Amino acid sequence: MKCLYYLAPTLDSTHQVSDDLHAAGVNDFFLHVITKDESGLKKQHIHSSNYLETLDLMRDGLIGAAIGFIAGLLGIAWVMYSAPFGPNVPALVYVALVAVATLFGAWEGGLAGIATKNRKLAKFQHDIDAGRYLILVYVRKGKGAAVRTMMRDRHPEAELVASDKHFINPFSAMRKRARVRRLAAGNPKRLLQKE
Q: In the prediction, which pLDDT does 50 show?
């Protein structure tokens, strides 16, 4: 599953993109739009984003769980070394200590993630604040080229700005595409023909 990031300039353009993607076989579950004009999306019946996409809940929760797991391992190492409960502590107690520390870390990380915006979307916050529409299209491996071709042919105003192997994976690297290449090449028409 791949995530393609497009920036559209207007609500009408976003609505047309949504309709064409639906016609190409992309349903609402794999199509989300992020904008500051949520009411406009609802009026046009365009599927907006959810909290997992706009907040860093997954990423920070997983980081917190990893830190909690490591802290739990260090805690049981200390308990085994110092033996404050005696020498015959059942192994289940150690497993429970690591599990509690991991869950506590995930909880704390999740709380931190709820308070912060998604780091992958932060790169586009200026465009979103300027009134543009960030369209996230999740495509299967075989459909990516067809979606890109359709978007390039029917919606040249919608700019492909990045792609990601999978949006939900909090540690995957997002590759910025169109804007960086276009600025480097100085020729936007040639870039659109290559993609």
A: 83
* pLDDT in the model for residue 195: 42
Alpha helices in the chain, H assignment, sequence order:
11-23, 38-43, 51-54, 57-82, 91-114, 119-122, 125-129, 144-154, 178-185, 188-194
108 and 131 housed in the same domain = no
Same domain, 41 and 133: yes
The Cα 181–Cα 159 span in angstroms is: 12
Nearest to 118 by CA among 83, 170, 166: 170
As to burial, measured by CB atoms within 10 angstroms (0-12 exposed, 13-18 middle, 19+ buried), residue 156 is exposed
Average pLDDT, the chain: 85
Return the closest-CA partner of residue 95 out of 75, 109, 122: 75
Give 135's strand partners: 6, 33
Q: Name the token pair of 4.
A: 């393609």
The order of strands in the sheet holding 159-164 is 31-34, 133-139, 2-8, 159-164, 174-176
Chain segment 127-166, per-residue pLDDT in tens: 999 999 999 999 887 888 889 999 999 999 999 999 887 6
| Residues in contact with 30: Cβ distance below 8 Å, sequence separation at least 6, in sequence order | 137, 138, 139
User: pTM above 0.85?
Assistant: no
Give the C-alpha separation, 103 to 162, whole Å. 34
Residues 62 and 46 in one domain: no
**Range list of H helices, 83-124:** 91-114, 119-122
